[in-house]
Write a structure and sequence with these properties.
- Helix content is 81%, strand content 0%.
- By secondary structure, it is mainly α.
- The longest helix is centred in the last third of the chain and has 29 residues.
- Helix 1 crosses helix 4 and helix 5 runs parallel beside helix 8.
- It is built from 10 helices and no strands.
- The radius of gyration is 20 Å and the shape is elongated.
Length: 210
């Protein structure tokens, strides 16, 4: 293994170990000393690859999401009606959120911490591309809708269902099937369809009365 390959592998190893640590404890809960012990490298060695904790965290966000981006993009770029492509996105997104608790936890930690700079980072590195994909579809599907609100709802309903599952399972009426990503995606899709149908009905009524 040459020096460049070793450098890349070391960097990936640091990110692989740092991602679940940040997901479990949040940005403020992780110390570089703790990460150093976990990775088996000195703090100075980690700083050789990442200039500071913020830069490392930035790369963790990209590392945890980058391998999901292609699959999500393909779910939207396929041929078919816009509504079908939106349904495909929601199904893929629900699977991703369900399968990767690190991405889900990183988003939730930032909402709890409320650090404006890191919230902006999560929005731009984790949510921006899915948001733009869904926004374009929503604009095609429901021209009369509030495109921003409908897009945010599409993404957040999936995230929130998966994130609150550990707590909601103790509420009356819980069914084990509610933790199934296919059930979550079907529920979200139906809610969106109902919303879009209502918007279309109101638009048609307005048109008939003019």
């Amino acid at each position: 293994m040459n020096a460049q390959s070793k450098e890349i592998n070391t960097r990936i190893n640091i990110l692989d170990k740092a991602t679940p640590l940040f997901a479990a404890k949040g940005y403020n809960g992780v110390s570089m000393r703790e990460l150093s012990k976990l990775v088996g490298l000195s703090t100075a060695a980690i700083y050789h690859h990442f200039p500071d904790k913020h830069a490392l965290y930035f790369e963790v966000l990209k590392h945890s999401f980058i391998d999901k981006a292609t699959a999500i993009a393909s779910s939207v770029s396929n041929t078919g009606a816009p509504l079908e492509r939106l349904e495909s996105f929601i199904e893929r997104f629900a699977l991703m959120v369900n399968d990767d608790q690190n991405v889900r936890a990183l988003v939730m930690w930032e909402l709890l911490d409320g650090d404006e700079a890191r919230l902006k980072l999560v929005a731009e590195e984790v949510l921006l591309e899915p948001f733009k994909m869904v926004l374009a579809l929503v604009q095609d599907i429901a021209p009369e809708a509030d495109h921003y609100m409908l897009t945010v709802s599409s993404i957040w309903l999936v995230l929130s269902h998966s994130a609150t599952r550990p707590m909601c399972q103790y509420l009356p009426g819980w069914k084990t099937s509610y933790s199934d990503p296919s059930v979550i995606s079907s529920h979200v899709i139906q809610l969106l369809k109902n919303n879009i149908n209502t918007i279309d009905t109101v638009a048609n009524e307005r048109g008939a009365n003019t």
